[in-house]
Write a structure and sequence with these properties.
It is built from 11 helices and 8 strands. With 253 residues, the protein is α/β, with parallel strands linked by helices. One of its GO terms (molecular function) is phosphatase activity.
């Protein structure tokens, strides 16, 4: 590749937040009510039932966003989406015996738990190095409300790491809609080739590629659990098992 055709230097890194940077699963698990007593529920099975419940709740949130996009519905407050998907999930036969344990205070605690998540262990050192040593501009570009993102930044110890938080509430459209990425690029005054999207969700990266951004997939066991990882590996500029090599990968893009 000649110097004239070499891609522009990366200036901005856009991060998805929940799942990619934050371990939502571990953050919500302590807020679930105990399972009803049952002789067939050994501790290991009870833990699996609770884990599966959270994974299904998370997927139903994504499904609801997709449905809203397909019906051209406006962005909804994420707390309302989380509550409606929780209540719908509790109506399914699999959780009918557990449903009475989800009292209004328990439901409220679970909704608020989405606002107070812990980061994955590799996140804070990586982001600080990218921002302070490499001098990249870091941004959150994620679905949800601005209030949610402000709370998450504070809870995760990430204050001062990001230049700005781009929520779907602020942008006015959900990822992975093309308009979401184009809106952010206009605000930043950057070309797509100067930006890289980092996410643990293949749909986010497909949207970024459509507008010409470079993409890095970070594998998290909590997300994209039904997607073909080999396909994802081939589709993106880089595929990582964690963020520890993110700095090196972006430097080489």
């Amino acid at each position: 590749m000649t110097p004239s055709t070499k891609p522009p230097k990366i200036r901005a890194i856009l991060f998805d937040f929940m799942g990619t940077c934050l371990n939502w699963h571990a953050s919500l698990l302590p807020h679930l009510p105990p399972l009803p007593s049952h002789p067939s529920y050994p501790p290991s099975l009870a833990s699996k039932i609770q884990s599966d419940f959270l994974l299904q709740w998370r997927q139903s949130y994504f499904n609801t966003n997709t449905l809203r996009i397909s019906h051209n519905l406006p962005v909804e407050n994420i707390d309302l989406t989380h509550l409606s998907t929780l209540e719908t999930l509790l109506l399914t036969p699999a959780y009918s015996s557990w449903s009475p344990s989800f009292t209004p205070p328990i439901k409220d605690s679970l909704i608020q738990a989405w606002h107070h998540q812990i980061p994955w262990p590799d996140v804070l050192p990586t982001l600080k190095s990218l921002s302070e040593e490499e001098n990249y501009e870091l941004f959150v570009h994620a679905n949800g409300s601005t209030r949610l993102q402000l709370d998450l930044v504070k809870a995760a110890g990430l204050k001062g790491v990001f230049e700005m938080l781009f929520s779907s509430q602020l942008v006015g459209v959900y990822k992975p809609e093309r308009e979401s990425y184009e809106w952010v690029l206009r605000v930043l005054g950057l070309q797509p080739e100067e930006c890289v999207m980092v996410a643990a969700h293949t749909s986010d990266l497909k949207g970024a590629r459509q507008v010409g951004m470079r993409t890095v997939y970070v594998r998290r066991w909590t997300d994209d659990i039904h997607d073909n990882q080999e396909v994802i590996r081939r589709e993106n500029d880089a595929y990582l098992e964690n963020m520890r090599d993110l700095e090196k990968v972006i430097r080489e893009l």
